[in-house]
Write a structure and sequence with these properties.
This protein has 76 residues and is α+β, with helices and mostly antiparallel strands. The protein contains one helix and five strands. A hairpin with a 2-residue loop joins strand 1 and strand 2.
Length: 76
């Protein structure tokens, strides 16, 4: 997982949206994880297509908590 935040273009109902998040690699696949309100949106990087939304636990409060949580949920 990339420790530094990056900018990603995600496909939305209203077109493309540029949002900050982290990149993750799972085998040969690349995904972005972007925080949105009370979820983490996991999307495929090339298409910007949503893969899944993961609820953010209340214990995740800092950037360090966020990166640790992402590493745990994806096993990166």
């Amino acid at each position: 997982m990339g420790k530094e935040a990056e900018e990603f273009c995600l496909a939305t109902k209203n077109g493309w949206a540029k949002l900050a998040g982290h990149s993750i690699n799972v085998g040969q696949y690349q995904f972005s994880v972007v925080p949105l309100k009370n979820i983490f949106r996991v999307s495929e990087i090339n298409s910007g297509a949503k893969i899944l939304d993961v609820p953010v636990p209340k214990a995740v409060e800092s950037n360090e908590d966020t990166t640790t949580f992402i590493e745990i949920i994806v096993g990166a």
